[in-house]
Amino acid sequence: MAVTIRPARPDDQAFAEAMCRRLVDFPLASWRSPEEIIEADRRVIEAFFAAPPEGQALLIADVDAVRAGIAFLETPTDYFTRRPHAHLGVLSVTREHEGQGIGRALIDACIDWARAHGFDRLTLSAMVNNTRARTLYARQGFGEEYVRYVLPLDTGSGSDDAVRSGT
């Protein structure tokens, strides 16, 4: 099996957008719908292909000339240091290539990209129920830094809206 990691080309757009469906193949939090996650990541990929911004990259993994996965990188500013850093926003591997080291190869390429751009860290986020991804990230040397807590609010009664608006 020959794995090649390369920058995305215009003809990769449909594949990359379709890979967003793989990002919900685990139990989601009750307040998240698969559609909102898929659509959010699809918008990011679509925007990248429309006009690739400086400081972003979309990598494609090919296995024997067949597309097998994607990695989307961006460069946000670190909250604490206020310095830019590399962030792996999307990592997705086809079902057919799952468990064959494609995710690992994409992460290695992301690390190389981050170093080549002079960043001192590579971050990523994973949903707590995505144990397969979290296991991969831990094996690749990523450490947990903080946990984001979410409180879904019932805005149907109107009282929450009134409090937020100050009325």
How is the topology of this model organized?
Layout: E1 3-7, H1 13-19, H2 34-50, E2 57-63, E3 66-74, E4 86-93, H3 102-116, E5 122-124, H4 131-139, H5 159-165
Parallel strand pairs: 4-5
Antiparallel strand pairs: 1-2, 2-3, 3-4
Could you describe the 3D structure shown?
With 167 residues, the protein is α+β, with helices and mostly antiparallel strands. It has five helices and five strands; from the N terminus they run βααβββαβαα. It has a single domain, classed as Gcn5-related N-acetyltransferase (GNAT) (Aminopeptidase, 3-Layer(aba) Sandwich), CATH 3.40.630. The protein has a five-stranded mixed beta sheet, with helices on both faces. Strand 2 and strand 3 form a beta hairpin. The radius of gyration is 18 Å and the shape is globular. The chain starts with a strand and ends with a helix. The C terminus is likely disordered.
Count of alpha/pi helices: 5
Q: List low-pLDDT spans.
A: 159-167
- At the fourth CATH level, what is the homologous superfamily? Gcn5-related N-acetyltransferase (GNAT)
CATH-level-2 architecture: 3-Layer(aba) Sandwich
Structure described in brief:
Helices cover 33% and strands 19% of the residues.
Give a quick set of tags describing it:
globular, alpha+beta, 19% strand, Aminopeptidase, 167 residues, single chain, disordered C terminus, 5 strands, 5-stranded mixed sheet
